[in-house]
From TrEMBL, chains A, B:
Pathway(s): Lipid metabolism; phospholipid metabolism
Protein name per Swiss-Prot or TrEMBL: Phosphate acyltransferase
Protein function: Catalyzes the reversible formation of acyl-phosphate (acyl-PO(4)) from acyl-[acyl-carrier-protein] (acyl-ACP). This enzyme utilizes acyl-ACP as fatty acyl donor, but not acyl-CoA.
Origin species: Siphonobacter aquaeclarae
PANTHER family for the chain: FATTY ACID/PHOSPHOLIPID SYNTHESIS PROTEIN PLSX, PHOSPHATE ACYLTRANSFERASE
Quaternary structure, from the entry: Homodimer. Probably interacts with PlsY.
Catalysed transformations (reactions): a fatty acyl-[ACP] + phosphate = an acyl phosphate + holo-[ACP]
Keywords attached to this entry: Acyltransferase, Cytoplasm, Lipid biosynthesis, Lipid metabolism, Phospholipid biosynthesis, Phospholipid metabolism, Transferase
Keyword Cytoplasm annotated: yes
Amino acid sequence: MKIAVDAMGGDFAPHAIVEGALLVSPELPEQVTVVLVGDQAAIQEVLGDRPLPGNIEIVHTSEVILMGEHPTKALAQKPNSSISVGFRLLKEQAIDVFCSAGNTGAMHVGALFSVKSVEGIMRPAIVGFAPQVSGQFAVLLDIGANADCKPEMLDQFGEIGSIYAKYTLGIPNPRVALINIGEEEQKGSLVVQAAYQLMKVNKKYNFVGNLEGKDFFTDKTDVIVCDGFTGNVILKMAESVYEILKSRGVNDEFLSHMNYEAIGGSPILGLNGNVMIAHGISSPLAIKNMILLAKRQVESEVYLKIKQALS
Amino acid sequence: MKIAVDAMGGDFAPHAIVEGALLVSPELPEQVTVVLVGDQAAIQEVLGDRPLPGNIEIVHTSEVILMGEHPTKALAQKPNSSISVGFRLLKEQAIDVFCSAGNTGAMHVGALFSVKSVEGIMRPAIVGFAPQVSGQFAVLLDIGANADCKPEMLDQFGEIGSIYAKYTLGIPNPRVALINIGEEEQKGSLVVQAAYQLMKVNKKYNFVGNLEGKDFFTDKTDVIVCDGFTGNVILKMAESVYEILKSRGVNDEFLSHMNYEAIGGSPILGLNGNVMIAHGISSPLAIKNMILLAKRQVESEVYLKIKQALS
């Protein structure tokens, strides 16, 4: 298995990426290799005198897509960027998953142009993870790819989120809930009211109804469905609660799961391949955990399961 | 000043309401009276042998609107309910503010039918309070009255939220921010993109741009504008973080401000009068704090300031 990581992506690249790869390297089983996609000299500089472990490879690239760049333009103008090359490798199946903490837009557009959406997928969704009091994580989608969603999209997020929870997280018959401002089906915005009607008759997954803000963490569901606006807002808010309380000296295991580093990566679901994005601020620990999640995701063959479900 | 509280509203009424009134009674200045609107015998039963303090009055009512009842029907069928009577007193200006932890829908409809919206207000909004790291609270609106909002409504929430922050909370030239999933003005849903364009040219308040989920608590703004879906979700989520961490033994002052009891009441803004709702689960402490907020709000004459601004 080859897990490729964009060595040039993120606020602390290439340093944090290379260090993350070194951190995870001793924990990987024999058949797993990390492929650092990026500038050879820059990666070498981070390594310094340390030898490259046998399970880390470098694919040299000469260009970088910066955080602020326009995704489509940048991808067209920089064919030798780490993101462009990563997606080329993914399309050619030379790697099993491509991960980046770089320009999210470029990752999204690059995925749609290279491996493309699975046929039947309305819009790919980005997955986040909501820590539960039990210690588990619920799958939260969408967390930012689609600020405006149609009811049909939310219904489909329920389906692909359920497949992810089942195969990648190993939860049998995952419960799927819809974020709303009340428990009753006639509550909420027009879009979620309509989505509820689709979800409650959808036999492809186990819909358990509406989920209020007070129950995001209380083990009431395994998959949390919402539009990308709501998902993004709550995920960033949870991360900030962790940051603030940590800076105030609070130490708690449940709270520590709100730290973005705890999982590290956010899969883009609904693609013909494994693609994962990460926080721009990703630390070596976050990169390490993203690689471990990527491994789990590749093993679960979840993108093929989604493809099968939709065909 | 007469602060009326629905003694029959809330999961723990009349007990929690009466105890809350007793709790706040010694702290009120001479000219302030609490009016308990509800069943005299039920209130008397909670009092037991304790005498009614001189600054608490009872207005007897014989009916109760229950939590699950349809607002419009219940108000029509129960003219002697505590909510119906409370609004009658408010309309007649026999009281200065009406507060209830009861049926939120009935409070909303009752307000619109009795004191009515201020002319020019598109939709009244419910106000929540987002604790800031500094110890202050930011005004958050809407937190649930309007799940779907037009851009013009969000712009107006900015205006009335700013007036509330200025007069009731005493913040000069309050900063107003719009919840979004990025800092740039072209980010987010179509509605917030359009709202941004209105807000940035609105000279009636001090718009400081978009606010991401990571900055709800970081003192970047005094007023946080969003639709009632988003506001409801984040407020309930913050309350649940407090509940969970408290149950895990975490003690922290900033965290304690996420407790709904810290403020206790949520004003409905944009009405011709002072109306405040509270959590169904309100405790005596929450009721006490709601009464103290109501006092501050009456003193600030904020509803008249909003009326003046819109005329």
